[in-house]
Design goal:
binds S-adenosylmethionine, 20 helices, alpha/beta, 437 residues, binds iron/sulfur cluster, 3 domains, single chain, nine-stranded mixed beta sheet
């Protein structure tokens, strides 16, 4: 939502008074104010600040808040400015977030507006097609928390961690990296697909400073089965840090009672469910997940927190199937639904990138259906992502060699799993013939 009035009118119940101006928020009854803040994450004054932050992002195309507040360490102990940036170096016990020369160099460049394509090109590419990049999203989120749009007032303070310490996972999602899934590692070995992992579990709990941490983003692997994540939740409770923003990604297949009871003791849990298709399409992509279990678990997770969103990783496999998924999600998610369209990334598993889909007209037709959804009409971020996909497909020419390689790779998984593209996504299968010409 870009304005106070759009935001307020969307969440407003019939009996709530009108409030045209954000400056009048304080005049609302206490229970409405607290609902806005606690259930809809409203930060008082943020819409005025929002336009100043947008201005900053427009005028300074390099500045990103993440190197000032955030540490990313992956399953193999690589440090990066964020999960989308190129790796910088290995994490060691001597790493000093405040004094590190590489961090300070990039911070200076960003404040000056000097781009750092070596690390941040993924964001620049998204912005080139008018998309909203992670740089923009994260900067909006954290400058709102810091209540400033003045880069000179931003000091370095490590308060936000994304530490991926384990690849233990119960699924074999096609587009995922074996670095993130023990099941994929096992399957790749069985099929004979080479992969290279210099595996070295980082100690999530030793990296996080519980006195200063404000946000922890947990992915993996599958957090609901990772022992180190249970330890981390226990430590948050022991250290009286049940208030921190815990954002946890999960594939939604496993809501066990131990994990559920730990989560219930925290007061600021944000869950992001990864779902990539409706029913059989999800099972095909996120093998071998069971749709009934996931839909039951959505209901269980709603009892733990109202702050649930869905991350849809958009790939060559589901680019034609997003509409039915979004309509379903809008019917089951807490209102207003938050659906994040996450582009399948080059560099993780290149076979599945969405723009490898071989027919622009079909992709554009199917993507255009999304314009009819609630999310497109009401959620700026969702609309921006759909427009970005449409924009790239309007200019896109897919590459036959890349498409051929996709079929070769995907067939290996199909044959091993005994489930076939032709039966689940025939509209993609029909273009196999292009690769034989
Ligand atoms: C690696 S998973 C780990 C957390 C958890 N297991 C899950 O699936 O939500 C984190 C997110 O990355 C997404 N993802 C997987 N492969 C990807 C790719 N090639 N490009 C971009 N995102 C990807 C997943 O769909 C999921 O939303
Ligand atoms: S559940 Fe998450 S970590 Fe596991 S294979 Fe799927 S995307 Fe990767």
């Amino acid at each position: 939502m870009s304005s106070w009035i759009d935001f307020y009118n969307t969440i407003k119940a019939d009996e709530w008074p009108d409030c045209q101006n954000e400056d009048d928020f304080d005049l609302l009854p206490e229970e409405i104010k607290s609902e806005c803040i606690n259930n809809y994450n409203y930060v008082p004054g943020s819409f005025n600040l929002k336009s100043q932050i947008s201005n900053l992002l427009e005028t300074n195309k390099s500045f990103c808040v993440l190197p000032f507040v955030h540490l990313y360490v992956n399953e193999t102990n690589d440090i990066a400015y964020c999960c989308h940036a190129k790796f910088l170096k290995k994490h060691t016990p001597n790493f000093d977030f405040i004094e590190d020369d590489d961090y300070n160099d990039v911070r200076t460049k960003m404040k000056q507006g000097t781009k750092v394509p070596k690390f941040c090109n993924t964001c620049y590419e998204v912005e080139k097609h008018n998309g909203e990049s992670y740089r923009m999203l994260a900067t909006k989120e954290w400058l709102t928390k810091l209540q400033t749009s003045d880069v000179d007032k931003i000091d370095s303070k490590l308060v936000y961690y994304d530490v991926r310490n384990d690849s233990l996972c119960n699924l074999n999602c096609r587009m995922c990296d074996p670095k993130s899934s023990t099941q994929l590692q096992k399957e790749y070995k069985e099929i004979g697909i080479p992969f290279n992992i210099n595996y070295n579990k980082s100690k999530l709990n030793e990296i996080v400073n519980y006195d200063t941490v404000e946000k922890i983003y947990i992915a993996g692997g599958e957090p609901t089965i990772m022992p180190e994540v249970s330890k981390l939740l226990t430590k948050c409770i022991e250290n009286n840090r049940t208030d921190l923003d815990l954002t946890l990604l999960t594939n939604g297949t496993n809501v066990n009672s131990k994990f559920e009871s730990l989560l219930r003791q925290l007061t600021n849990v944000n869950l992001t469910l990864s779902i990539d298709g409706y029913d059989e399409v999800n099972r095909y992509i996120r093998w071998p997940s069971d749709w009934k279990t996931i839909t039951n678990n959505i209901e269980k997770l709603k009892q733990i927190t109202p702050r649930i969103c869905v991350n849809v990783t958009v790939s060559i496999l589901n680019i034609t199937r997003l509409y039915e998924l979004v309509k379903f999600l809008e019917s089951v998610l807490p209102n207003p639904p938050t659906i994040l369209l996450n582009e399948c990334m080059v560099g993780i598993n290149d076979y599945y990138v969405p723009f490898n889909f071989p027919n622009n007209n079909l992709a554009l037709d199917k993507l255009s259906l999304l314009k009819e959804t609630y999310s497109y009409k009401n959620e700026d971020y969702f609309k921006n992502k759909v427009d970005y996909f449409l924009n790239v497909f309007q200019q896109n020419t897919s590459n036959i060699d890349t498409l051929r390689n996709f079929f070769i790779f995907n067939d290996k998984l199909d044959n091993h799993r005994g489930i076939y593209l032709r039966d689940v996504i025939p509209e993609l299968e029909q273009f196999r013939k292009l690769t034989n010409e």
